[in-house]
Specification:
By secondary structure, the chain is an alpha+beta fold. The protein has one domain. The chain is built from six helices and six strands. Strands 1, 2, 3, 4, 5 and 6 form a six-stranded antiparallel beta sheet that branches. The radius of gyration is 16 Å and the shape is globular. The chain binds heme C. Heme C binds at residues 41-43, 62-63, 65-66, 69, 83, 106-108, 117-119, 128, 130, 145, 149-150, 153-154, 165-167.
């Protein structure tokens, strides 16, 4: 596996710089994200991802783990959030049937950090990426902004999340 990664990395190095910048994200930048549908969910009702000293013991375990993962990003936590859904994916998002459209479908917008956490479907499987608002790929190769961190939680809480979708319309 490591070798394959090395070979892929070597191939990517021979591509243009702009292509290398998009290498880590698994789903494309949704250039029209500002026109996506803003939805109300458990997290948007809370309003923000808080800092590490917040008492989140009354929330479901997945929310506690989300806060634990991201609380230290800034001293007061990541801050205000919005959830945006691609209009074509709204019917499926509402039903939570996991039948989202191929490509990018949902965004967790960390407004104060100006970051877009993006999920999508790639050949039917959940795919993850992090972008700056201008489309710069900020997905990490490892660590808290890596696609694997997203996957461990979004796929790991299989009873809570459906094909990568964790939130529910409120
Ligand atoms: C420890 C758990 C956890 C991790 C890690 C995590 N998320 Fe989430 N994510 C959640 C939860 C819980 C929600 C639902 C929030 C709500 O109520 O709207 C969510 C919501 C989202 C949404 C809105 C659509 C949905 O599924 O409800 C997107 C998009 C998203 N996350 C992307 C990402 C990406 C990309 C990463 C990795 C950089 C990531 N998440 C890391 C737990 C996690």
């Amino acid at each position: 596996m490591r070798n394959i990664t090395k070979i892929i990395s070597a191939c990517l190095l021979s591509l243009s710089v702009s292509q290398i910048a998009y290498a880590a994200g698994e789903t494309p930048f949704p250039a029209d994200w500002k026109s996506w549908t803003s939805v109300t969910t458990t997290l948007t009702t809370i309003g923000a991802l808080p800092g590490c000293d917040a008492d989140v013991s009354s929330f479901p375990p997945i929310y506690q783990e989300t806060v634990e993962t991201y609380c230290a990003v800034r001293p007061q936590g990541p801050g205000a959030v919005a959830v945006l859904v691609k209009p074509d994916a709204m019917a499926s998002y509402t039903k939570r049937d996991g039948k989202l459209v191929e490509g990018s479908n949902m965004i967790l917008h960390l407004k104060e950090l100006q970051l877009l956490f993006v999920t999508g479907l790639n050949n039917g499987a959940p795919a993850y990426a992090v972008f700056k608002e201008d489309g710069t790929d900020a997905t990490g190769a490892d660590g808290i902004l890596s696609a694997n961190t997203c996957r461990v939680c979004h796929t790991g809480y299989g009873a809570f999340c459906v094909n990568g979708q964790c939130g529910t319309l409120k």
